[in-house]
């Protein structure tokens, strides 16, 4: 037939593809995905397939008695790590798709259990705060139920259905949401991003809570209410991320959750498991471990690095300092003091020294001499015994900063 499309010559097609794709270093994700497909590899399966290919090549070279380039093993290690991460995100990604494309919230077997736990631990709110939440709840209920589906770009991934496993960590859900929304750190949590995904953000004159999440039962729609007097932009951002954690993670399926100041934050440890999970979600969502580790490797572990990370990711200095301590390979600790007394702390895995809260600041500590009227930041070497319980005489490096908005002092300790 005259209008029949002729099969192109393979060489001509290959030449055309080379022109279209350009040099490898200029390929975007679409171009790389096309090349993988031409080789019969699904991009989602690429890490696992490449791991097997490199392992086979290493075995063949060993059998032939040939040297194995160190780059082979480095790439293999990275791919294995990437493969493990992608496997860990499989079920969280399924939940994101169920919520934001299908538009429903898959319930898990523990939902009623968690709801009961929430009601048991909920403290009585003032009538002022109850009226705020009641007004928002009535508004949320009055919104007509919609069949609207949220689509992100030209997304054509297959829906996986089903609920996410409670074995997935809060960090897994944070990584899955960042990937699903195609966010690039640093990002702001403004109403545009939230509204596109069924959430509305409200600043409210609350007196007894920092954040609250109200949601439509079984539907991916809700309102996040944030206290309008939270003293710092970074802390407000963390509170919003904390409530998003409640919104997306399984086991948090309550119609209304209310989070007080003592529930939200990276230094909060004596809180309910559901709140700790939301804090861990927020920390990874705003300060991704992979990115923070890269910076620590480049800049070292110090308060200066914490300041850099805080500025880069637009978070509070406290959140950045705690994240550094959690992820560093060095010996480090961060301490928050209030009214001249050590209040709470976080230490790195390599920190082996005993830190006790409730103790007054030592006379040799630099933190003791900070005040709104005097010096607001000091750093230098101090005797180890001024901070830890020991009779040894070596030194620690202390960097303390007055945080007047919280009426506290933040101290970062490292080995010199």
Order of the strands making up the biggest sheet: 6-5-9-8-7
How does CATH name the architecture of the largest domain?
Orthogonal Bundle
Low-pLDDT ranges: 108-122, 148-165
- Helix fraction? 40-55%
CATH topology of the largest domain: Arc Repressor Mutant, subunit A
Rounded mean pLDDT is 79
Major β-sheet, in short? 5 strands, antiparallel
**Roughly what fraction of the amino acids lie in strands?**
5-15%
Helix and strand succession?
A: HHHHHHHHHEEEHEHHHHEEEEE
Distance between the termini: 82 Å
Structural domain tally? 3
Topology:
Layout: H1 10-21, H2 29-38, H3 46-63, H4 70-88, H5 90-102, H6 111-121, H7 127-142, H8 170-181, H9 191-195, E1 199-204, E2 211-215, E3 222-227, H10 233-248, E4 256-259, H11 273-286, H12 289-299, H13 303-313, H14 317-327, E5 332-338, E6 341-347, E7 377-383, E8 395-403, E9 408-414
Parallel strand pairs: 1-3
Antiparallel strand pairs: 2-3, 2-4, 5-6, 5-9, 7-8, 8-9
């Amino acid at each position: 037939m005259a209008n029949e499309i002729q099969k192109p010559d393979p060489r001509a097609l290959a030449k055309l593809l080379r022109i279209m794709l350009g040099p490898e270093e200029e390929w975007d994700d679409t171009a790389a995905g096309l090349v993988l497909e031409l080789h019969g590899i699904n991009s989602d399966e690429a890490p696992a397939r490449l791991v097997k290919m490199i392992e086979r090549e290493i075995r063949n070279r060993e059998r032939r008695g040939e040297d194995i380039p160190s780059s082979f093993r480095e790439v293999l290690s990275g791919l294995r790590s990437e493969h493990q991460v992608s496997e860990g995100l499989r079920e969280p990604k399924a939940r994101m798709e169920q919520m934001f494309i299908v538009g429903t919230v898959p319930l898990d077997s523990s939902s009623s259990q968690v709801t009961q736990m929430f009601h048991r631990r909920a403290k009585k709110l003032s009538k002022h705060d109850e009226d705020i939440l009641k007004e928002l709840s009535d508004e949320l209920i009055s919104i007509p139920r919609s069949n609207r589906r949220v689509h992100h770009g030209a997304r054509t991934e297959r829906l996986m259905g089903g609920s996410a496993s409670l074995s997935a960590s809060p960090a897994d859900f944070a990584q899955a949401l960042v990937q699903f929304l195609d966010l690039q750190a640093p990002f702001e949590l403004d109403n545009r991003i939230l509204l596109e995904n069924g959430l509305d953000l409200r600043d409210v004159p609350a007196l007894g809570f920092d954040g609250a999440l109200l949601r439509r039962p079984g539907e991916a729609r809700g309102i996040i209410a944030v206290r309008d007097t939270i003293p710092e932009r970074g802390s407000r951002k963390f509170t919003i991320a904390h409530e998003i954690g409640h919104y997306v993670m399984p086991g948090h399926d309550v119609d209304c959750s209310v989070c007080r100041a003592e529930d939200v934050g990276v230094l909060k440890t004596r809180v309910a498991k559901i709140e700790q999970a939301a804090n861990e979600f927020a920390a990874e969502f705003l300060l991704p471990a992979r990115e923070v580790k890269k910076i620590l490797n480049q800049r070292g572990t110090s308060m200066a690095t914490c300041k850099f990370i805080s500025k880069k990711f637009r978070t509070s200095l406290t959140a950045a300092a705690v994240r550094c301590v959690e992820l560093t390979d060095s010996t480090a600790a961060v301490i928050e003091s209030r009214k001249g007394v050590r209040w709470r702390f976080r230490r790195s895995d390599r920190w082996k020294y005993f830190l006790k809260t409730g103790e007054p600041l030592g006379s040799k500590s630099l933190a003791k001499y900070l005040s709104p009227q005097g010096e607001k930041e000091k750093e230098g070497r101090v005797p180890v015994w001024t901070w830890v319980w020991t009779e040894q005489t070596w030194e620690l490096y202390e960097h303390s900063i007055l945080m007047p908005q919280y009426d506290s002092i933040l101290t970062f300790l490292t080995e010199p």
